[in-house]
Amino acid sequence: MDGRESSNSDEWQDVIQSFSDKINGIRANILRNGYYYDSYDRAFNIVLATTDATLFKARLPSYEVPLINYDAPSNVADYAKRLDRWHLADPKRSQMIITFITADTDEINVIRELESFYGVRAAELLWEDKSSRLR
Questions:
Q1: Which H or E run contains 113?
Q2: Distance between CA atoms of residues 134 and 60, nearest Å
Q3: Which of 65, 67, 69, 108 has CA 20 to 30 A from 93's CA?
Q4: For residue 72, which of 64, 63, 82 has the smallest C-alpha distance?
Q5: Which InterPro entries match (predicted)?
Q6: What share of the chain is helix, strand, coil (3-state, %, to 5)?
């Protein structure tokens, strides 16, 4: 491993530690006060954005936060791998998984195959054209 790879690894671990500290601070505040709200906190709504490659390589602690897929994997096997890796970060499997897809693409077929093969049910929220409400 060259110096650059070591530096990237250290940087990634710093990001993970910072994310973990923030999550733990929010949870402690919720336990202490029953809620968390700080309009001045830039990280009030925090997210860890990553790629599949990084997600598979990273040693993620248990976060118990939702997984949001902005790009659905192209097949059921890859989708299952992503979910399996995420369940290492959420071992209680207690969090929601949200996947944004376009209905008239192959992405919907991946979701349907996932439902059929694994016996799961994916809830659907449809966005009406030229409207700001869900139907």
A1: helix 106-118
A2: 34
A3: 108
A4: 82
A5: P-loop_NTPase
A6: 45, 5, 45
Sequence ranges of the domains in the chain: 1-41, 47-135
Tell me the per-residue pLDDT of 52-96, one tens digit each, with 9 for 90 and over.
766 666 666 566 667 778 788 888 898 888 888 777 766 666 667
Cβ–Cβ under 8 Å, residues 107 and 113:
no
pLDDT of residue 93: 61
Q: What mean pLDDT do residues 36-47 have?
A: 60
Q: Highest mean pLDDT: which of 22-26, 38-42, 88-92, 130-134?
A: 22-26
CA distance 39 to 49: 22
Give the C-alpha separation, 110 to 72, whole Å. 8
As a whole number, the mean pLDDT across the chain is 71
Beta strands at 67-69 and 97-99: parallel, antiparallel or unpaired:
parallel
DSSP H or E run through 72? none
Is the Cβ–Cβ distance between 84 and 118 less than 8 Å? Answer: no
